[in-house]
Amino acid sequence: MYKYRLKERAFTQPQDAKVYQEERIAAFDKITQRLNSLYPAIDNAKDETIAFYNEKPESYAVVKPTDLILSYLNDIEELLTGDKWKPYKNNTI
After folding, report:
1. Which position has the higher pLDDT, 32 or 88?
2. How many domains is the chain built from?
3. Which of 12, 58, 60, 64 could hold 45 in an S-S bridge, CB 3.0 to 4.6 Å?
4. Residue 82 domain-assigned?
């Protein structure tokens, strides 16, 4: 389902690890920006869904895949807060 793969890199200089760590930390800013940009899209999707159901009150059609979106959010939340992704916890890296 997911196409995520860790990139293998050979660190040849002590500075390489520092650069790598800076890139990893900067990624959180990119994640925050992307999440913040989703708020308008969520509002628009909600409005579109309301309009569709107002036009067709008998419909059971899925206008936007809210179940799938919520599942993805649960996965993200688990990655950020759960114990499944904490390799540093046991000093494995």
Report:
1. 32
2. 1
3. 64
4. yes
Structural domain boundaries, residue 25: 14-90
Query: In whole angstroms, what is the distance from residue 43 CA to residue 31 CA?
Result: 19
Rounded mean pLDDT of the chain?
86
Q: What is the pTM assigned to this prediction?
A: 0.69
Decide if 29 is inside a domain: yes
Round to whole Å and give the CA distance between 20 and 11.
9
The pair phi, psi for residue 87, each rounded to 5°, is: -65, -25
Cβ–Cβ < 8 Å for 51, 64:
no
What is the mean predicted confidence (pLDDT) over 18-32? Answer: 93
DSSP codes joined into one string, the chain: -----PPP----SHHHHHHHHHHHHHHHHHHHHHHHHHHHHHHHHHHHHHHHHHH-TT----SS-HHHHHHHHHHHHHHHHSSTT-GGGGT--
